[in-house]
């Protein structure tokens, strides 16, 4: 039997790949789901084989967490809300993120067997609310809560609560992994993520162009590897690790997609939308509204620490974008064109 590890939020996009990575490296995985009565949502994981079991536990309730953590040597707390639209009240997001994290940590501490917890945080806890946007952010930086939107606040406060808990109680080692926007292929049609939306909208031609927004991205498969390294490497204890590459504008995503898929009939927009138009659309499109605070702002971060200390590497962003797109098509989330575009006569 391999070392038993608990992974939270099994049916999520990132958690699914983390589970697969652990199983491939001989770990015994116990994974939490909110509803054991929905086996179809985890069929893609059970089909992979390996020592995998599921238990019911909800981040907003105490029930089930003691049983979930029992006998585990480590916990990878991956589950966290990631909204597609701004919440009506930021407390709806912040409360579950902070209290859910503390609920998992308390259960891990009470179990007495957990030696290390790896927390999936975000660059949202590092790069937001700062007065200057031309600074390359590192693990030494924290987002300014008072100047951040609800999601960024939730990730910052949840991670800070985790570090404070460990500093006070010292029940186990803590490592935080801080990914950028997570791209990469889906494992199933149900294991989608809000981070797929820019690629989906461009590939489906659901937008007339690209807002002047962008992200520092990471491939979900590389992110899963970093979680495993953060679990295994002794030197990782007590550290944060940024998992994000160079900033990529949404228009650049469109260029990558158009070069590969336009000849197949996909009408991928490649023009940049004026900021004024984006702000106008945001008045009635909550999804677009999320982008307004970051118009024209590049995410500049360094993942050198993870490379240097853990030997971690990232694949080219082009590969991640194209694999994301191919997966969205394969799972029917983006429909194939009825007629492929015909080559122009010369």
Question: How would the blueprint of this fold be written?
Answer:
Blueprint: E1 4-7, H1 13-24, E2 28-33, H2 43-46, E3 52-56, H3 65-69, E4 74-77, H4 91-111, E5 116-120, H5 150-169, E6 173-179, E7 181-183, H6 197-203, E8 214-219, H7 220-232, E9 240-243, E10 247-249, H8 250-261, H9 275-282, H10 286-289, H11 304-310, H12 317-330
Parallel strand pairs: 1-2, 1-4, 2-3, 4-5, 5-6, 6-9, 7-8
Antiparallel strand pairs: 8-10
Helix pairs in contact: 1-7, 4-5, 6-8, 8-12
How does this structure look, described?
The chain is 37% helix and 14% strand. It has 346 residues and is α/β, with parallel strands linked by helices. The protein has a domain at 4-183 and 217-245 and 300-314: Rossmann fold (3-Layer(aba) Sandwich), CATH 3.40.50. It has a 7-stranded parallel β-sheet with strand order 3-2-1-4-5-6-9, sandwiched between helices. Helix 1 (13-24) crosses helix 7 (220-232), helix 6 crosses helix 8 (250-261) and helix 8 (250-261) crosses helix 12 (317-330). The longest helix is centred in the N-terminal third of the chain and has 21 residues, at 91-111. The model is unreliable at 341-346 (pLDDT under 50).
């Amino acid at each position: 039997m391999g070392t038993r590890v608990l992974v939270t939020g099994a049916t999520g996009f990132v958690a699914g790949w983390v589970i697969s990575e652990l199983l491939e490296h001989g770990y015994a995985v116990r994974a939490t789901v909110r509803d054991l009565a929905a086996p179809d949502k985890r069929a893609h994981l059970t089909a992979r084989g390996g020592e995998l079991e599921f238990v019911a536990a909800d981040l907003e309730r105490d029930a089930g967490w003691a049983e979930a953590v029992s006998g585990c040597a480590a916990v990878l707390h991956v589950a966290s809300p990631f909204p597609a639209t701004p919440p009506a009240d930021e407390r709806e997001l912040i409360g579950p993120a902070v209290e859910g994290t503390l609920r998992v940590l308390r259960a891990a501490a009470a179990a007495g067997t957990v030696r290390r917890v790896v927390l999936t945080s975000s660059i949202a806890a590092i790069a937001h609310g700062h007065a200057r946007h031309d600074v390359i952010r590192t693990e030494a930086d924290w987002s300014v809560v008072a100047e951040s939107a609800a999601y960024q606040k939730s990730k910052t406060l949840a991670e800070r609560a985790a570090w404070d808990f460990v500093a006070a109680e010292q029940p186990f080692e803590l490592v935080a992994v801080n990914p950028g926007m997570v791209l990469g292929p889906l494992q199933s049609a149900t294991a989608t993520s809000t981070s797929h939306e820019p690629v989906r909208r461009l590939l489906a031609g659901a937008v007339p162009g690209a807002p002047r927004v962008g992200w520092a991205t990471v491939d979900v498969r590389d992110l899963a590897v970093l979680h495993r390294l953060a679990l295994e490497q002794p030197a990782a204890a007590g550290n944060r690790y940024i998992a994000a590459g160079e900033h990529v504008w949404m228009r650049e995503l469109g260029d990558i997609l158009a070069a590969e898929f336009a000849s197949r009939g996909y009408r991928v927009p490649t023009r940049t939308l004026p900021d004024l138009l984006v702000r106008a659309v945001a008045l009635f499109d909550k999804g677009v509204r999320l982008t307004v605070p970051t118009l024209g702002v590049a995410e500049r971060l360094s993942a050198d620490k993870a490379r240097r200390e853990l030997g971690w590497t990232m694949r080219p962003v082009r590969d991640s974008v194209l694999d994301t797109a191919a997966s969205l098509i394969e799972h029917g989330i983006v429909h194939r064109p009825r007629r492929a575009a015909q080559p122009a006569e010369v």
